[in-house]
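Researcher: Let's continue the batch. This sequence belongs to Carboxypeptidase, and it's 555 residues. Same format as the previous ones, please.
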Amino acid sequence: MFAIAIMLGNNYSFELEPYTAAPPRSRVKRFRRSSGPHSETGFVDYKYPNLRALLQGSRCSRTTMLFSAALAALAVLPAFVAGRQIPVVEGVLGGVATLPRKSGPQTLVADASDASSKPTPGKLRVTENSGVCETTPGVYQASGYGDLTSDESVWFWFFEARNNPDTAPLVTWFNGGPGSSSMIGLFQENGPCRINNDSSSVSLNPNSWNEFANVLYIDQPIGVGFSYGSTTTGTSEEAASDVWKFLQIWFQDSRFSKFQGRDFGIWTESYGGHYGPTFAAYFLQQNAAITKGSVTGIPINLKYLGVGDGLTDPLSQYPGYITYSQSNPYHPLVSSSVWSRANSSYYRSGGCESQIQACYNGGSNSVCSQAQNFCNNNILSPLAGNWDVYYVLAQNPDPYPPDLTNYLTSRAVTSKIGSQSTWQETNDDVYDNFADTGDWMRNSAPNLETVINSGVRTVVYDGDADFILNFNGVENMVNNLQTDFSSQFKQQQFANFTVNGQSAGVFKNAGTFSYVRFFGAGHEVPAYQWGTLSRGEAALQMFTQIMSNQSLTPT
Ligand SMILES: *[C@@H]1O[C@H](CO)[C@@H](O)[C@H](O)[C@H]1NC(C)=O
Ligand SMILES: *[C@@H]1O[C@H](CO)[C@@H](O)[C@H](O)[C@H]1NC(C)=O
Ligand SMILES: *[C@@H]1O[C@H](CO)[C@@H](O)[C@H](O)[C@H]1NC(C)=O
Ligand SMILES: *[C@@H]1O[C@H](CO)[C@@H](O)[C@H](O)[C@H]1NC(C)=O
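Model: Same format as before. Here are the C-alpha cells for Carboxypeptidase:
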C-alpha cells in the first residue's frame, strides 16, 4: 500500500462521508499537478474531484477510509486511465506524461501457432464473411491485416454497401485519440451494428453508413486497436504515410482491386481534425507525384472529406472551451471561480494562448508538447467540471455509448474475425509518442484549406452537447479558414437542417464546403438521436447528401 495522505480541497467539505462503500476503481484516477516548484502526485476520485489522496501529503481525515480501501486495490494503477477517445494522463484529459514511462515502445506479439498470424509484408491477411456485426443477407464483409512490414500490421474491417456496392463510393473511417481504435466508430457510431448496453451483444444499425457507401474501418497508427507491431508513429504526417501504404496494399489485393478509382472519401472524428486534413492533403500530393512519375502507386480518387467534432486549429479552438463552459445550450459546466482561473490561464502573458502561438510560430516539439500540457491542464480539464466531456447532458462518466472492451476481447468474436492481438480502446504508447512531438497543438487548417480549394467536397460537423471539441471552437476554426468559399460562407445565415420534417440542427453551405451543428448530439455524433428521429438518422442524412456530391439540404 502507498504512503498516502488524504486531503480535502480547501473550498470543499463533506457534511457526511461521501462514501458508504469504496468508490469504484474506474472512478479513481492518478494525477500530477505542478505549479512553480511545487508538485503533487496522487489519486483523485473524479466524482469528488477535491477529494484527493497524495502520494506524500499533508492533512489526513478519517472520513476517507473507504477511499483508501479503493486505493489499496489500485497498487499498480496505471498512469493512464481509459478516457474514451482521448486519454486521461495523470489526471489530465489530453495531458502529457511527466512520470517515466513504464516501458519503451511495445510490440504486441500475435499467437505464433496460427499460420494466419504470420505477417506477409506487402500483402493482406483476410477473413471473409465472418458473420459478425453485419447480418444483412448478401452484404459482403472482410476483416484482417495489411502488413506494411513484418513488424507493422494494420487492422481493417470492410463492409460493402447494402445498396449498389458496385457503384457506391468507398469511404475510410478513422477515430482519433491519438491512439484510439476505429472500432469505436464501427460499433458505437456509424457501423452496420451497434454495441448493446450489456457490452456483450450488438444490434443491427438501420442508419449505418454502409446503407449508402462501401466503408473501410482502419485501426491506425500501428499499435492501435487490433493493429500491432512497432509503435513508432508520433505525428499525423507519419500516420498519413502509413495509411497511404496500407491503402496501396488493399487496392492491389484481388478481392478489392475493383475499388481502384472509385470515388473515395475520408471520414473521421476528434483527433481526426488533424488526421483528416493531413491524410487528404498527403493523398493529393501522392496522386500528383504518381502523375509526374516520381512515385509509383495507385492514385486515390479523393472526392470527399468529413470531419466531425475535430481538433484542427488549436489557436482558433481553445477559446471555445472558455465560451462553451460558461454558456452553451444546456447549463454552465463550472463555477465562476473555476471559469475565471481558466480564462486567466488562457489570456495571461505566457499562458495557453501565447504558448500555442509559440508552437505555431515554428515551435519545437517540446514547445508544442508543453503547450499541450499547460493548456489541457489549465483549460481543457478543469472547464468540464463534473460533466461528461463527450456529452455534457450527463454526469461524468456517461455510461453511453457502452464500452466495447468486453465484446471485442471475447473469444466468440475474436475467433471469427481473424484478429491477432488483444483489443484496447486506446494505445498509450501511441498517445505518448504524439504527446512527445506536440502534434496536438500544431495547426492542420492549412492542409484543410488546400484540400477544400482543390475541389474535395468537405463537411465539418459538430454535436452541440460535446464539450471536448465543442461547436464554439469548431465554428471559430471554420470562420478563420481562408478558402475560395470563405467569404461566401461568412455571408450565409444558418438555416435549419431538417430531417424528415424535424429540425435536427443548423447548417451553412458555400461552394463545395458545408458545416452542420447537430442538436442534442455528443462527441460521437451518429450515436445520438434527436426528437422522434432514430439514432443516427440525422447523421446519415448528412453523410448521404455529401457522399452524393450534394450540398446539405433539409428534407
Ligand atoms: C478574461 O481574461 C482576460 C485577460 O486577463 C481579461 O481581459 C478578461 O476580462 C477576462 N474575461 C472575463 C469575462 O473575466
Ligand atoms: C442503455 O443505457 C442508456 C443509459 O446509458 C439508456 O438511456 C438507454 O435507455 C439504455 N437502452 C436500453 C435499450 O436499455
Ligand atoms: C430552427 O427551427 C427551430 C424550431 O425547430 C426554430 O426555433 C429556429 O428559429 C430555427 N432556426 C433557424 C435558423 O431557422
Ligand atoms: C461534385 O460537384 C462539383 C460542383 O457541384 C463538381 O465540380 C464536381 O465535379 C462533382 N464531383 C463529382 C465526383 O461528381
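Researcher: Any comment?
Model: Residues 1-20, 32-40, 54-65, 72-78 have pLDDT under 50 and may be disordered.
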